[in-house]
Amino acid sequence: MLKTRYIAFLFFLTVSAVSGGGYTFVGEWPVEGDPEIITDRPFGLAIGPGGNVYLAYPLRHRINYYSPTGTLIEGWLTKCSVFGNEQSPFAVDVAPSGLFYTSFPVEGRIKYYTPTGTLLGEWGRWMTPYPSFRGGEAIAVGPNGYVYVVNVCGREIMYFTPEGSFLGKWNVKNFAEREIGYPTALAVSREAGVYVTVDYLYSDPDKSKSYVQCFDASGSFLSMWDLAGPSNQNFSSASGVAVDQSGVVYVTDLLNHCVRYFTGTGSFLGAWGKEGTGRGEFRFPSDIDVAPNGDVYILDFGNRRVQYFRRFSSTD
């Protein structure tokens, strides 16, 4: 069993102040990995119904899970159920039932486990009627247990029953005047709204932009908004998205090293973070999720750590 150091901070540091409140730093902990190997660190983060934090380590072919304050509880190797070779987990999410889902983009697979790592089932490339399926660069589980997966080859969202039966798919919206949109991350709200971050890429990087597109549970388009916010700062690298129980949508910006958050209909609420190594600072934040108690957890990829934050109101 891998071991980790545990760092807990009993103080709060204000990292964002917007009208009506903001977020305070609560704590952090370092993740496992060789500091000399840039890819030897977790790529995916998800939080279970009980507050435990799951991290996917592709290079180590491993899932680890931690207490809400970062104490390593247990972990398991991810292996092929047929040949026994180790496989690389990437995106992760946890169903309301506690079942744990993870994607394997290289192998084109989705697998699901008990909360402690017992494999229950899988589906993917050679087990689906859609041969272009490549296993999911992003994955999210809705309140009804449906599993939503980004299929990068088709630039589309597919969704399945909890056991992997195919239910349907849809494409993200494109614009005539823009390049084709590439879905990068997705999350499902408690009302089963599906929020997808989409990057629109140009040959000129300064013109590239990111949007959130919102769909209902079966893929009907509802709305979309630009992630630039009121400052109009370009947002072209959405790496993670999460929705809390009140419907607030959080998005991590990989290249601008920050987090922005919005109402469920796209009104800008605030932002925090900048490039750095201090508390509330990030280097390439790659994933985000919200705990049952409302704490926001961010996988700070470049700093090899997890940071978590708590919302405060202006009356606190």
Report what the structure shows:
By secondary structure, this protein is mostly beta strands. The chain has a single domain (38-303), classed as Neuraminidase (6 Propeller), CATH 2.120.10.30. Helix content is 0%, strand content 45%. The chain contains no helices and 25 strands. Strands 1-2-25-24-23 form a 5-stranded antiparallel β-sheet, with no helix packed on it. It has a 4-stranded antiparallel β-sheet with strand order 3-4-5-6, with no helix packed on it. A hairpin with a 5-residue loop joins strand 21 (258-262) and strand 22. The model is unreliable at 1-20 (pLDDT under 50).
Average pLDDT number: 84
Provide the structure class.
Answer: mainly beta
CATH class: Mainly Beta
**CATH architecture label name:** 6 Propeller
CATH superfamily: TolB, C-terminal domain
How large is the count of helical segments? 0
Main sheet strand line-up:
1-2-25-24-23
Low-confidence stretches: 1-20
Keywords:
mainly beta; Neuraminidase; five-stranded antiparallel beta sheet; 45% strand; disordered N terminus
Task: Give the helix/strand layout.
Blueprint: E1 13-18, E2 21-30, E3 44-47, E4 53-57, E5 62-66, E6 72-77, E7 92-94, E8 100-104, E9 109-113, E10 119-124, E11 139-141, E12 147-151, E13 156-160, E14 166-171, E15 181-188, E16 194-200, E17 209-215, E18 221-226, E19 238-243, E20 249-253, E21 258-262, E22 268-272, E23 285-290, E24 296-300, E25 305-313
Antiparallel strand pairs: 1-2, 2-25, 3-4, 4-5, 5-6, 7-8, 8-9, 9-10, 11-12, 12-13, 13-14, 15-16, 16-17, 17-18, 19-20, 20-21, 21-22, 23-24, 24-25
